[in-house]
Amino acid sequence: MDQLDLLKKDWKRQDSVNPRLSKDALSKIIHKKSSSIVKWIFIISVLELVIPILISLFTGKMGSAEELENLGLTSFMNSYYIKSFYVFYYLVIIYFIYLFYKNYKTIATNVSSKLLLQNILKTRKIVKYYIWFNLALIPVISSILFYKIYHSENFLEQLPQDTNMLVVWVLSVILIVVLVVLFWLFYQLIYGFLLKKLNRNYKELVSNDIVL
Fold first, then answer.
1. Taking 70 as the threshold, does the pLDDT of residue 18 lie above it?
2. Helical pair 113-150 and 80-109, crossing angle rounded to 10 deg
3. How far apart are CA 48 and CA 13, in angstroms?
4. Which of 179, 182, 175 has the alpha carbon at shortest distance from 149?
5. What ranges in 14-152 are assigned the alpha helix state H?
6. C-alpha to C-alpha distance for 212 and 204, rounded to whole angstroms
7. pTM score, two decimals?
8. What are the residues whose beta carbons fall under 8 Å from the beta carbon of 173, sequence distance 6 or more?
9. In angstroms, rounded to a whole number, what is the distance separating the alpha carbons of residues 156 and 152?
């Protein structure tokens, strides 16, 4: 049982002699817990951005040029469209991270419970947009890459003569669906867990009428 649950139990045992003090104490704990949750949302989003970049830098790109050539993706991956997409993607992700940080600072520095309610709702909405943005990119990017690969002469030359492309496409679609489900489960495990705790804080504020 955490500090919030203990305080609530103690609060229920109290008389109505000093309800204001109990509400203030409960409000401070909810503020602290909410601030910590939003901070972790911010930290995890930063790690999601930084870790893949660090892995790419430290592992290098040995053999990647040859692999791209075999798949017939060399010119496509070096094209203006792909470079523009990378710029767009990182700008959007950095903007989401900025919003998470902004919400964290607002919750951490402001003692208004009314503002806390608003920021909890805002954080939940931003996290959902962030998740859907990342999930939507998987089928879009995968479909484009598969299309480019399967229409590449280099790739087609390596396929057995009796290969049924319809079967290849069906398997590709199944792979895309599996990837989306796996990433959705990952986001539910990490962000979903934090959002549930944040939603619990929201309900505590509303149910106990703590709006200062």
1. no
2. 160
3. 45
4. 175
5. 19-59, 64-71, 74-77, 80-109, 113-150
6. 14
7. 0.80
8. none
9. 6
